[in-house]
């Protein structure tokens, strides 16, 4: 049971304040001064024998006294200041190098400190939790005024604990600043960060592994820098690919393959839509008879963006130089582009802009009707906007203009005198799907598809048979990862390398080059999931410090828990 000190209202102030002072047996309270904001306690040291900090011999002979002013923990709304009168002593050891030394009070303060040890610990705890500016605001609200720079300096004086070299190491990169990345290392067995490195290239990772021998397993993504760094710094360590990154790479491969066939996606959407319902026609009230040929509007063809124009020019020059027998290295040197870009352009039979919006346009349900009216000669965008507004469209005129202004004008500009009827479009079932939406459709189990999705998928396979092979390979790969089927990996590689789609074939060749790490992903339990969680915490700490997070301070805060 803890001892209890009970004081009455008639007791002296010294008896009340003495238990609240650090090291009360070595200090004596002499005076108390109180202002509207600050409480000052004047205390004096009562030690008669003090040991020399160099030789450790006790000393009794006093040289002089001096006063030290310290900030202490607040008492309610009052700041607390301690004025401590301590002594200087003569060292009585003739062989000691220190002849005169100052009295030490380690329970209260450190040498040359301006704050008590317990105030320093409180500031440090607030700094670890909140950082500089937020911590300074919190300290100011609790009668411990300190600026953000001082609070960060308190953290920087803290020496980080030595973290043992992990047996199982997880590694991933994170963004430190614009165009500057870092590397986070996590002990997957202890679930704690090990180190924070500035840079994500192979030399940084290999250097750390060389300075910390003993790593047996390295869990990583498919980045080339970490592959080379792990091979160079820890050649005997077993590398394990992350299963989530493998699935993500497969999704990216399918999206690139589908982006090259965006016209096929649009055609499949139109055909599957036509199978489920009649082709939408315009209402009779909207039919107009035109006896003369209309003049085309004064609309210039849209000019390509500077980036697209430059890419198209590079694509044409690459094919011209390759046709003349120039090597890939020489083409890259002449055009000042990467050799990977040269190989990419040579694999493309025609130039395709792979930048696509992840969401379909709100006008996709009306595409079939707009195409029909456009071919009939109705190219006035305002009139088309008014027509689809009567069918339920709630978008703006500007959105329709962006959707239609790139369409080529119909030949002859002749309108049809016949009237047509329109069936309102169903917004829930767009005619065209984005590459990302189609990718998820190819990877889903056929039994889970709705009737509309199944019809779209079958139409897509009929128009592009190679996508059926990609769909089968993708579903088999996901099942292999999910069920950890190690024996199915090599047969899958053989089938994928024979796939007619270039993206899937290159994906298989890349996995074959690091087959040992891929096979380990199907047998080992390790993954970089913990690293991703620690990176989320790292980003939170970095953003808390409002740009003041230099790498040394950020490293201290990340490793504080460890």
What does this structure look like?
It is a single chain. The strands form 3 sheets. Strands 1, 2, 5, 6 and 7 form a 5-stranded mixed beta sheet that branches. A 5-stranded mixed beta sheet has the order 10-9-8-11-12, with helices on both faces. It has a two-stranded antiparallel sheet with strand order 3-4. It is 43% helix and 15% strand. The protein has helices at residues 13-17, 117-130, 133-141, 148-156, 202-211, 224-233, 243-259, 262-276, 306-323, 328-335, 339-347, 367-375, 381-389, 397-404, 435-443, 451-463, 465-483, 489-497, 502-513, 515-521, 529-544, 551-559, and strands spanning 27-34, 38-45, 50-51, 58-59, 62-75, 78-90, 100-102, 168-177, 180-187, 192-198, 217-220, 238-241. The chain has 22 helices and 12 strands. Among the domains are: 18-114, no CATH class; 168-242 and 527-559, Nucleotidyltransferase, domain 5 (2-Layer Sandwich); 433-521, no CATH class. It is of the alpha/beta class. Residues 278-296 and 414-430 have low confidence and may be disordered. Strand 5 and strand 6 (78-90) form a beta hairpin. The chain is elongated, with a radius of gyration of 37 Å. Helix 2 (117-130) packs across helix 4 and helix 10 (328-335) crosses helix 11.
């Amino acid at each position: 049971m803890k001892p209890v000190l009970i004081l009455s209202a008639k007791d002296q102030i010294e008896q009340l304040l003495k238990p609240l002072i650090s090291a009360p047996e070595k200090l004596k309270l002499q005076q108390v001064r109180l202002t509207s904001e600050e409480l000052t306690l004047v205390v004096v040291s009562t030690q008669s024998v003090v040991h020399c900090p160099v030789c450790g011999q006790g000393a009794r002979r006093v040289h002089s006294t001096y006063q030290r002013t310290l900030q202490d923990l607040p008492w309610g709304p009052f700041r607390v200041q301690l004025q401590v009168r301590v002594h200087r002593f003569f060292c009585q050891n003739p062989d000691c190098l220190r002849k005169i030394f100052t009295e030490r009070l380690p329970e209260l303060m450190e040498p040359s400190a301006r704050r008590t040890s317990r105030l320093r610990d409180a500031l440090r705890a607030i700094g670890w939790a909140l950082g500089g500016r937020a911590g300074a605001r919190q300290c100011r609200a609790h009668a411990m005024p300190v600026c953000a720079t001082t609070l960060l300096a308190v953290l920087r004086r803290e020496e980080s604990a030595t973290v043992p070299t992990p047996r199982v190491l997880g590694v991933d990169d994170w963004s430190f600043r614009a165009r500057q990345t870092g590397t986070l290392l996590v002990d997957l067995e202890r679930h704690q960060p090990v180190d924070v490195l500035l840079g994500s290239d192979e030399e940084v990772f290999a250097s750390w592994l060389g300075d910390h021998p003993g790593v047996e397993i390295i869990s990583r993504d498919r980045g080339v820098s970490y592959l080379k760094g792990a091979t160079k710094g820890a050649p005997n360590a077993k590398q394990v690919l992350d299963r989530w990154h493998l699935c993500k790479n497969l999704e990216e491969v399918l999206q690139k393959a589908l982006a090259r066939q965006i016209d096929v996606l649009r055609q499949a959407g139109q055909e599957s839509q036509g199978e489920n319902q009649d082709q939408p026609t315009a209402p009779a009230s909207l039919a107009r008879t035109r006896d003369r040929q209309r003049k085309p509007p004064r609309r210039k063809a849209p000019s390509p963006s500077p980036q697209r124009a430059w890419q198209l020019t590079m694509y044409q020059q690459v094919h011209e130089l390759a046709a003349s027998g120039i090597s890939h290295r020489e083409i890259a040197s002449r055009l000042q582009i990467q050799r990977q870009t040269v190989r990419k352009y040579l694999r493309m039979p025609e130039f395709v802009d792979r930048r696509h919006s992840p969401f379909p346009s709100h006008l996709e349900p009306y595409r079939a009707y707009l195409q029909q009216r456009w071919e009939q000669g109705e190219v006035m965008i305002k009139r088309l906007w008014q027509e689809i507004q009567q069918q339920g469209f709630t978008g703006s005129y500007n959105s329709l203009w962006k959707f239609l202004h790139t369409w080529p004008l119909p030949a002859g500009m002749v309108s049809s005198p016949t009237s047509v009827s329109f069936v309102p479009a169903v917004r829930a079932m767009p005619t065209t799907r984005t590459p990302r939406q189609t990718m998820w459709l190819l990877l889903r189990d056929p039994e889970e598809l709705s009737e509309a999705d199944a019809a779209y998928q079958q139409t897509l396979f009929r128009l592009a048979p190679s996508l059926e092979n990609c769909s089968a390979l993708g579903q088999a790969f996901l099942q292999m990862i999910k069920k950890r089927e190690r024996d199915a990996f090599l047969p899958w590689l053989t089938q994928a390398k024979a796939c007619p789609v270039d993206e899937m074939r290159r994906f298989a060749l890349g996995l074959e080059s690091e087959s040992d790490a891929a096979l380990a992903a199907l047998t080992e339990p390790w993954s970089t999931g913990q690293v991703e969680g620690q990176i989320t915490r790292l980003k939170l700490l970095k953003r808390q410090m409002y740009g003041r997070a230099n790498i040394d301070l950020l490293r201290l805060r990340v490793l504080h828990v460890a």
